[in-house]
Amino acid sequence: MGNNILYIEDNPDNMMLVKRALESRGYHLLEAVNGQEGVVKAEKEMVDLILLDINLPDIDGYEVAHRLRHSSKRGLAYIPIIAITANALKGDAEKALSAGCDVYMSKPINIRELWARVEAFVPSPNPRIP
Ligand code: MN
Fold it and tell me: What is the value of pTM for the model shown?
C-alpha cells in the first residue's frame, strides 16, 4: 500500500493547510481544484485515499463520489473517501454518506482530526512527527 492522497478542493487556503499537515506525516498529496479534474486524477493516478470537498465549482462532491464509485477503474469502488462538508446542519453529511463517502469531516478543518481520520485508513509513513 502506498501513501498517495488525492485532495479535491477549490479553496487554495484549505489546499495549502492540508498539504502541509499531510506532508509533515510523510504522505504525498495529489491536488485537484474541481470535481472533473478530481475524477480524472483518481482514474489516472495511483491513489490510496481521497479527501473530497463537497462544494466544488463544477460538479459537486456528491456527484464526484457517485462517479468514483461507478468508475470503470474497479479499485475506485472501494477506495476510502473522506468528505469535507461546510454545511453539516443542512444534511451534507448524510448526503455524502449516501453518495458513497466512508466518513465526513466538517469545516473548518481540524488538523488533529484530519490526521486521525486519514490514519484510520492509511498508516502514516512518519508517525512519530507531531
Ligand atoms: Mn469548496
Answer: 0.95
Q: Where are the domains of the chain?
A: 4-120
Q: For residue range 39-53, list pLDDT tens digits in order.
A: 999 999 999 999 999
State the distance from the centre of ligand 1 to the C-alpha of 87, rounded, in angstroms. Answer: 11
Distance of CA 43 to the CA centre of its chain: 14
Class of domain 4-120: alpha beta
* DSSP code at position 103: E
Helix H or strand E encompassing 126: none
Distances (CA, A) of 5 to 21, 72, 89: 12, 20, 27
Please report which helix (H) or strand (E) contains residue 92, including its range. Answer: helix 92-98
What spacing in Å lies between the alpha carbon of 128 and ligand 1's midpoint?
31
List CB-based neighbours of ion ligand 1 within 5 Å.
Answer: 10, 53, 55
Question: Which residue, among 101, 105, 53, 106, has the nearest Cα to 76 in the 3D structure?
Answer: 101
111-119 and 12-23 are packed helices; what angle lies between their axes, rounded to 10 degrees? Answer: 60
